[in-house]
Amino acid sequence: MKRPSMARRLTLTLGLIVSLVMLAMGWAFQHTLETTLHELDRVELVSRAELLRQKIEQARARDPYLTALGGELDTLLLGHGRLRMWLLDASGQPLHGGPGKPELVETDQPDGQCQVRRDDGVLMQALRLPLPMPMPHASGLDLSLNPRDGVGLGVGEIVVALDGRPREALLAGHLRQLLGLGLAGLLATVLLGGLASWRGLRPLRRLARASAALAPTAQGQRLPERHGDPGLDALAQAFNGVLERREAAYRQLETFNADVAHELRTPLATLINGGQVMLAGTRSTEELREALGTQLEVLEELGGLVKDMLFLARADRGDRVQAAQAQPLSLERELSHCTDFVEALADAARVRLRITVDPALQAAGAPPLHANPALLQRALCNLLSNGIAHSAPGSEVLLRARWRAGPGPLGRLRLDVLNPGTPPPEALRARMFHRFVRGDAARSQREGYGLGLAIVQAVAHMHGGVVFAEAEAQGLSVGLEWPLHDMQMDA
């Protein structure tokens, strides 16, 4: 089933919210009106009952036998078609108001409130009040009070009732008006809300069309970043950032492919030419052995290149050193192992090696070093080999381990090699950790494949650290650092 569009969902949501709000407000208004009308009827009943009591007291003062009371009670009802009155004796029989006894309903309500059921079954809101004094004997009453001969009359009560049908009709009409207005308001809200949603989402539709118009192979295409809405502007800027990173990744991939092809071309050509020469004529066993040895050396170099590329591919994939791979290591012992490994290379280049360790890393309670020992030695040996290769004979290459304050409770470990001499230009320092970069050496010279510092960078990233190449007064400092507290990672 196709999901509704955003504009339709917004319109339906707005309509639902308005419906609920209008329903709640209509119910509250109808309930308030009903309560108000009911209270008005009650006030009228109370006022009429009090007026009736006053009439009885006044009539009693003028005539103890109340001979004219019936006519005065009938006068009170003139112009009040909704109003009915009964005057009852002590036994509940009607003295005035009709021949039949009124049927009282719900007489247990407070303040004398009750209901009266008429002969036609209509319920009327009523009020019961006691008479202010005993009524005279039946022989002394006016005939209009319908006395019953032989019955002694004591204190009775007054019953005043009000027909509620006009009120109910008013409430029903008001409810119909509320429903009609609510339906009209809902329709208007849906129509206007749909129009507002459609107009409000026009920038988003323009953004979608601009995104669809981007060609997969086009370089430098970007979405417009000004749409009059901060949210859409941020979305366009984030999308443009993704495009820039994608293009940078494509450029890096193209450069990487070109560099790999360039690096593989020379050894493959050497293998092909050597094989063709050997097959061109009859060769002795010694010549064939020498040719195979040369080709084996070239193949071993290619094998090393493939291993380095696979290692860098793992680092690009985001591999990190896990807790099971990180071990607590002795910093001085690891540095000594690395210098011992490259000692022969340093002797051949007539370069001296020296190690310095920050006292903060040697003191009691110094932050521990957790790292993958094989990766750490590989990175340090690459740094030392690079420093030896770019140092003049008779110079000294310094391997340093320093502690520096930084994010985290234990600070950061900084491992670097200081190459004496004039530092290279800043543009070259910015590219030193790129793949297949060999400094100022020509590509035709066989000084490795230019992956050593790229591997150092990969090792730093796998330990959660960074690399650096900084110019100092004594020369060029090239190394890596990582936060000490980040070395014990989750498996």
Automatic annotation (TrEMBL):
Domain named Histidine kinase is located at 259-486
Subcellular location per the Swiss-Prot or TrEMBL entry: Cell inner membrane
Q: Which residues form the HAMP domain?
A: 198-251
Give the GO molecular function terms: ATP binding; phosphorelay sensor kinase activity
Q: Which InterPro entries match?
A: CusS-like_sensor (IPR048590), CztS_silS_copS (IPR006290), HAMP_dom (IPR003660), HATPase_C_sf (IPR036890), HATPase_dom (IPR003594), His_kinase_dom (IPR005467), HisK_dim/P_dom (IPR003661), HisK_dim/P_sf (IPR036097)
User: Superkingdom of the source?
Assistant: Bacteria
Q: Which keywords does this Swiss-Prot/TrEMBL entry list?
A: ATP-binding, Cell inner membrane, Cell membrane, Kinase, Membrane, Nucleotide-binding, Phosphoprotein, Transferase, Transmembrane, Transmembrane helix, Two-component regulatory system
Keyword Membrane applies? yes
- Coiled coil start-end: none
Name the record gives this protein:
Sensor protein
Pfam families referenced in this protein's UniProt entry, alphabetically: CusS, HATPase_c, HisKA
Any Gene Ontology CC annotation: plasma membrane
CDD domains xrefs: HATPase, HisKA
Annotated function: Member of a two-component regulatory system.
EC number(s) reported in the record: 2.7.13.3
Keyword Cell membrane recorded:
yes
Catalytic activities: ATP + protein L-histidine = ADP + protein N-phospho-L-histidine
